[in-house]
Amino acid sequence: MTAPGTTWFPPPCDEVMMLPAGREWDAVRTSTAVAEWAFEFLDDSRENSAAIMDAVRGCVYWLMPKGVATRASLTSWQRLRPHVTLITGDPAEHYVGVPPSHRRFGAGLHWRIPRNWSGRYLAHPYQLAAFLAPAVIHIHGPEALTLICPVCDQEVDRATAVKITGRHHPNDPAVSQLTVHPACARTNRKATR
Fold first, then answer.
1. pTM, rounded to two decimals
2. Closest listed residue to residue 65, CA positions, set 133, 128, 130, 1
């Protein structure tokens, strides 16, 4: 069964077309090194999708259903910056070079088709973010992921972050140590420095 908004095909043409992100789909861009590591796991996943390889710029693009990534917890994409970029139509128009569906090899823009391809050109944002996070850590190290405060969902500077004892979610039965902003720690009055 195909999820809503996951059916899209490249335009029937023989040349690369510059298409705007945010109209029919959004895009995610990362380096070839991060993508190659992620491909090792994405290729074996059930709902894998094609990706656009740009060897000239050393990057890879995945297209995703329009608006799904921004409606989802933006936290997963924020954590991956600057190594992974979410490209939407907001606030300005961004274009992505989309090769014809038959172009699957070569030095120019082409589609990378996974081993057990699902036939889809649009990726699942949640699954893609889940596979890109460990790929970023593998290529760039554990400090590469942006630290997000679980209290306010904003980026935390590691140099000023403090530890508190609390729950990730109000319904979470387990209390654990959380890394938060100093202001969030004062608000919760549970700072354990």
1. 0.79
2. 128
